[in-house]
Every structure is written in structure tokens, then in C-alpha cells.
């Protein structure tokens, strides 16, 4: 059954247009991976996955 809720209540409950979705990322690099390679991988992920999709981190 649909409920009519005020904008303030929808915002407080994080529903409808205020719904927030998320995901987690876990990194595992082989032992001996250089700090530069790790930085490049993380930067590439941000530049190619996060920013083009207008996601926040």
C-alpha cells in the first residue's frame, strides 16, 4: 500500500528521490607491488569509474 509522505519525512527516511545507494571496494595487490603502481590503479579507478558516473567517494 503506497503511503503519501511529506518531502521532509522522505528526506529523513532516505526514500524516493532521497534514496542513497552505495558499494564497497576492496583492494588486494600482490606483495612487492610498487606504491606508484597502486596509486596509478586507484587513480585510474577514480578517473574512469567514479568521476564519469558522477559518483562520490
What does this structure look like?
This is DUF469 family protein. With 57 residues, the protein is mainly alpha-helical. It has a domain at 23-57. It has helices spanning 7-13, 35-50. The mean pLDDT is 92.
Keywords:
single chain; mainly alpha; 40% helix; elongated
Task: Report low-confidence residues grouped into runs of 5 or more.
Answer: none
Overall residue-averaged pLDDT value: 92
The major β-sheet equals: none
- How much of the polypeptide forms β-strand, as a percent range? under 5%
Rounded to an integer in angstroms, the radius of gyration calculated over CA atoms is 19 Å
Shape: elongated
* Number of strand segments: 0
Judged by helices, strands and strand pairing, the structural class is: mainly alpha
Instruction: Return the string of H and E elements.
Output: HH
The number of helices is: 2
The end-to-end span amounts to 35 Å
Pfam family, one: YggL_50S_bp
Protein name: DUF469 family protein
InterPro entries: YggL_50S_bp
Write the layout of secondary structure elements.
Layout: H1 7-13, H2 35-50
Briefly say what this structure is.
With about 55 residues, the chain is mostly helical. It contains 2 helices and no strands. This is DUF469 family protein.
